[in-house]
Amino acid sequence: MIKDNVPAVESAMSVPGWRSLLFVPAHVPRFVEAARERGADGVILDLEDSVPQHQKGQARRQLPESVAKVGRKGASVLVRVNHGLRALAADLDAAVIAGVNALVLPKTDSAEWVSEIANAVSELERERSLAPGGIRFLAQIETPGALQRLAAIASSHPRMVAMALGPEDFSAAVGAAPGFDLLLTPNLSVLFAARAAGLLPLGFVGSIGDFSDIDKIREAAVQARRLGFAGALAIHPTQVAIFNEAFSPSEQELEWARCVVAAENDAATRGLSAFSLNGKMIDPPVVRRANEILALANNN
After folding, report:
1. pTM as predicted
2. What CATH number has the domain spanning 8-246?
3. I need a labelling partner for 233 at 20 to 30 A (CA). Which of 37, 44, 245, 255 fits?
4. Is residue 9 over pLDDT 50?
């Protein structure tokens, strides 16, 4: 569903290697200043939940300076906007500027909503002589109703680049605590929809509020990568290094992948598409996984 004039080539844009995206309250200068030193692949300047209502205007006015600061060391710069129409309009007017790589769209519940925001962003890009389609979208899924429309949301617009479940808001919406049993199915649903649409699946199964339990966060991140997630959103700087490590291939994985690719090349010269390596069968899906591991290492 494409309603604006973003070139079709945008749909083929590469998916970023976001292992860690760090939320930073956009109204607190000291947090913004320190964000670039945290080592995150991307920084999310938050205009939504972490900013009190009476300080949102100031946060918007500071965005040009904040964007320049957090992007100095090569990190992607994202801005999380509000969902309500009046606040969203003000947020888009402030956030569609040079240096912003993506917008985080909270409480995304339909493809039509994504398209409407995309139309507004395209108008602002044209008015401001920005590269058309340069600002991508990360959709946060935070309501049960959105789960029924994940495929449509994921393929709603070429600007879509990533999806993530918002565990706290989702849990609140169903009247439950954000535990593993509740969050496994919706997280996997987001994962499958994102992968099917060629988007980056972000997240882990659990509450984002347990940032002080380092061992628990590490375990959840390792499990998330094993499930197929590519990265996660961090609400505290201590989580960044954990996510960067957990969502990067280990040396053991890289060695395995190199051996598989080398053996596959040898097998191809003998006309084989399936072969044995160290007592295990290797066929095209396994070779694909090996190549993806090597590509992930190159991206990071």
Report:
1. 0.89
2. 3.20.20.60
3. 255
4. no
